[in-house]
Amino acid sequence: MTLWTASDAAAATGGRAHGVWTTGPLAIDSRAIRGGEMFVALKAARDGHDFVRAALDAGAAAALVSHVPEGCADAPLLVVNDVQAALEALGRAGRARTQARVVAVTGSVGKTSTKDMLRHCLSRQGRTHAAIKSYNNHWGVPLTLANCPPDADFAVIEIGMNHPGEIAPLTRQARPQVAVVTNVAPVHLEAFDDGLSGIAREKAAIFEGLTPDGCAIWNADLEVVDILAGAVPEGRTRISFGRAEAADWRLIDARSGPDGTACAAETPLGSIMYRVGAPGAHFAVNALAVLAATHALGADVAEAALALADWTPPEGRGRRHAVRLHPDRPALDLIDDAYNANPASVGAALDLLAAAEVPVRARRVAVLGDMRELGPTGPDLHAALANHPAMAGVDVVHTVGPLMQHLHDALPPDRRGHHAPDAEAMAAALRDAVAPGDAVLVKGSLSMRMGVLVDGLRAQGDKG
């Protein structure tokens, strides 16, 4: 599908098109080129201009560059003064031309799974475009907008941050009709002098980009709810969700089983029941935000509620795998939550693990890696996990990384498992530390590479 012609892209960016060409979606990784894309030569860890020739050879229809790379004199190019600024211009142009109703999602916890729930539910009701993976930063948001088909019915944009001042310019690019804050938690604390309040103000900045007829949706269970509510521009619709009595969309009951969560809620539309195709109270709450957003977008809530029943979390974000370690014994229940971690998400994952059903003599096992970017409070926040209520339902905790050493030391001896400096060192110990029928949670910040442990456990099953 053609998304950009040479003339349209040049007009949007003020750049100079070399040759006459058309392209499909934009791509930033030359290794992901499949044919027909526009390769965007961003300068990040590596200079993308070094890979333009490889991208073109792999089938890219054109490349967005700030200068003509060596060996590309006759190549189809869009030459601009600044590639990042041009990408943002293409994002704004993509947003301006699409008919899609846009929903933007942010939050310290749950934004990616909520984005995926929205994509899953809305795709049953119309052509839906959404961010790939966690493309939620200064290049991910404009890339998603630039790739939005003009005839899409819905678009779901994920917006993240690491430092103050990042969300506002992204939400102004997205101009959502609906903006959702899933949660505010102590994440990226080292970048905020005023702690949770500063994080809340940054998350609430997503409401700045709302269209004049837009709708702001936030979690009513948070202690910073006044900051979120106070940031909504005048004239926009306000909706809250959660377990709190004051919530407009209120979760009344959530009962998790091995294959999902049965939920009941009171809403402005009346009492509703829905099922989420994954166990976990946090999924139940965020699913309620999805239903509220669906209604605000003008889509069918009942159809969305039915779609939630067959939604499953993406890899690394709570997806469960049955790993058969022995042909004649129960499967190991592996909870893959290895993509990222902060105190709130680890607490939710421990709740999920503690509620897991296991056979007699099987155990609930947590394998936890460092939570990064917590600033000077990091050691204390790691140690405090030992007192999380869900720990009473966890049999053993293995820890990975220097910060998790503080949790290891704080655990009672009967719950203290192995400690390792990194995931690779833990992998060897973990092979003999789990057994058929166990429920095993693997979670940690992305830089801890906890996915190595998930892959190792799944490989054991392949050999079983």
Automatic annotation (TrEMBL):
The gene is murF. PANTHER family: UDP-N-ACETYLMURAMOYL-TRIPEPTIDE--D-ALANYL-D-ALANINE LIGASE. This is UDP-N-acetylmuramoyl-tripeptide--D-alanyl-D-alanine ligase. NCBIfam families: murF. GO terms for biological process: cell division; cell wall organization; peptidoglycan biosynthetic process; regulation of cell shape. GO terms for molecular function: ATP binding; UDP-N-acetylmuramoyl-tripeptide-D-alanyl-D-alanine ligase activity; UDP-N-acetylmuramoylalanyl-D-glutamyl-2,6-diaminopimelate-D-alanyl-D-alanine ligase activity. InterPro entries: Mur-like_cat_sf, Mur_ligase_C, Mur_ligase_C_dom_sf, Mur_ligase_cen, MurCDEF_CellWall_CoF430Synth, MurE/MurF_N, UDP-N-AcMur_synth. Residues 332-445 form the Mur ligase C-terminal domain. Involved in cell wall formation. Catalyzes the final step in the synthesis of UDP-N-acetylmuramoyl-pentapeptide, the precursor of murein. It is found in: Cytoplasm. Keywords: ATP-binding, Cell cycle, Cell division, Cell shape, Cell wall biogenesis/degradation, Cytoplasm, Ligase, Nucleotide-binding, Peptidoglycan synthesis. ATP binds at G107, S108, V109, G110, K111, T112, S113. HAMAP family: MurF. Pathway: Cell wall biogenesis; peptidoglycan biosynthesis. It holds the Pfam family Mur_ligase_C.
